[in-house]
Amino acid sequence: MKQIKSKKRIGEYGEVFTNDREVEAMLDLVQDSFKSIDSTFLEPSIGEGNFAIKILERKISLIESKYAKKSQSYLRALIKAVASIYGIELLTDNVLVCRKRLYDYVTLYTKSKKTLNTIQMILEKNIINGNTLTMKTVNDEPITFFEWKYNKNKLIGVPQTLISMLS
Ligand SMILES: C[S@@+](CC[C@H](N)C(=O)[O-])C[C@H]1O[C@@H](n2cnc3c(N)ncnc32)[C@H](O)[C@@H]1O
Fold first, then answer.
1. If you measure from the C-alpha of residue 97 to the centroid of ligand 1, how many angstroms do you get, rounded to a whole number?
2. Is there a smaller number of Cβ atoms within 10 Å at the N or the C end of the chain?
3. Which of 143, 39, 154 shows the shortest CA–CA distance to 88?
């Protein structure tokens, strides 16, 4: 993957992506976070998701070691893994690439349409096209995250604005 798209984007947005080796080394510093599938990550400038994809890889390798493939617990854990990764990115093209990379990665582990539809819906909510500094989306609405929980067998998202989380 290229780390730089253009000099203009570096100048205007500071867009230089982190390479895989550096991402892995940084994630190794927080290894304990990968003992639980639910550990939450928020990347305030997620780019094309170079950190998010490696976080998802680590979460899914834990799932693979814990649950029988295709079981309800396995599918639910895949959903929880994605649901615990959040990101904000200013540039729409990066947001779309990031969501697609995460979605495509999950398709390597399940073909369940129901699960994949849920994951797609979560990615649209969790990977936000917005400005971390103003805490607003590109549509000028307050950035709002959803905390995903199962209530019996129903997945619900409890909304909370970024500004209220930080105040
Ligand atoms: C240095 S790149 C890092 C991207 C990614 N974290 C990585 O390591 O590959 C910074 C990213 O932040 C985005 N960005 C710049 N200003 C931002 C802002 N105010 N809010 C959200 N994202 C922003 C840029 O578009 C760019 O994709």
1. 13
2. C
3. 143
Q: Where are the domains of the chain?
A: 19-132
Other CB atoms within 10 A of residue 129 CB: 21
pLDDT digits (tens, 9 = 90+) for 21-75: 999 999 999 999 999 999 999 999 999 999 999 999 999 999 999 999 989 999 9
Residue 165, C-beta contacts closer than 8 angstroms, at least 6 positions apart: 145
Give the span between the Cα atoms of 101 and 35, in whole angstroms.
23
How long is the chain? Answer: 167
Q: Is 0.70 topped by the overall pTM?
A: yes
Q: For residue 123, how many other CB atoms are within 10 A of its CB?
A: 23
d(CA 89, CA 129): 5
Contact residues for 121 (Cβ-Cβ < 8 A; gap 6+): none
- Provide residues with CB under 6 Å of ligand 1: 13-18, 43, 45-47, 50-51, 88-91, 94, 131-133
